[in-house]
């Protein structure tokens, strides 16, 4: 098993996407990259801790490669907006890859370089690539948030369309039944 940690805006959205992938065994929302020990959701939302909302993914590299996780990460959020994803604004919503080792760092840097050279996006990529530091799991009520609250307004208006688009684009990578 291996781990990857990404921040692409609200962790409710990114969790809902990555937990549907074949080869992903666990997705945990959390906070990383800040200076405060054990920050609360409220403190992170205020933007004063330096943490980003992230997901920590456990996956089987024999079933899904890190490069595939990077591809999905970049195609399911906007890596060209600094400290913003849609209506979510602040450093806590920044686009960030927290690498776990030098191999992940090199692969992420190469992937971003290739995206930039291919003009995959109309604006420059601003995704931060940093070592995993000060990671803390989010409070329990954030886990499986979309699955537990599908009719909540944010879930219905923001997450559901994103998940549906993801399902269409990456159907071949979904767990059996589209989980």
List keywords for this structure.
single chain; 179 residues; alpha+beta; Peptide Methionine Sulfoxide Reductase, Chain A; six-stranded mixed sheet; 6 helices; 8 strands; 34% helix; 22% strand; L-methionine:thioredoxin-disulfide S-oxidoreductase activity; Met_Sox_Rdtase_MsrA_sf
Provide structural commentary.
The chain has 179 residues and is α+β, with helices and mostly antiparallel strands. It is built from 6 helices and 8 strands. The protein has helices spanning 11-18, 41-45, 66-75, 102-117, 145-148, 153-169, and strands at 2-8, 24-32, 52-59, 84-85, 88-89, 95-99, 128-131, 136-137. Strands 7-6-1-3-2-8 form a 6-stranded mixed sheet, covered by helices on one side. A two-stranded antiparallel ribbon has the order 4-5. Helix 4 (102-117) links the parallel strand 6 (95-99) and strand 7. Helix 1 runs parallel beside helix 6 (153-169) and helix 3 (66-75) packs across helix 4. The two termini are 20 Å apart. The mean pLDDT is 95.
């Amino acid at each position: 098993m291996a781990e990857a940690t990404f921040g692409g805006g609200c962790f409710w959205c990114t969790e809902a996407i990555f937990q549907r992938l074949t080869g992903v065994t666990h997705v945990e929302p959390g906070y990383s990259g800040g200076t405060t020990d054990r920050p609360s959701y409220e403190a992170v939302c205020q933007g004063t801790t330096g943490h980003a909302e992230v997901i920590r993914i456990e996956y089987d590299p024999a079933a899904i490669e890190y490069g595939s996780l990077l591809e999905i990460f970049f195609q399911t959020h906007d890596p060209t907006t600094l400290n913003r994803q849609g209506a979510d604004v602040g450093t806590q919503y920044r686009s960030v890859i927290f690498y776990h080792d030098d191999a992940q760092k090199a692969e992420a840097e190469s992937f971003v370089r290739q995206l930039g050279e291919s003009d995959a996006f109309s604006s420059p990529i601003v995704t931060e690539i940093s070592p995993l530091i000060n990671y803390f799991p989010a409070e329990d009520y954030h886990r499986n948030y979309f699955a537990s609250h599908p009719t909540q307004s944010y879930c219905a208006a923001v997450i559901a369309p994103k998940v549906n688009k993801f399902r269409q684009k990456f159907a071949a990578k979904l767990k059996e039944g589209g989980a």
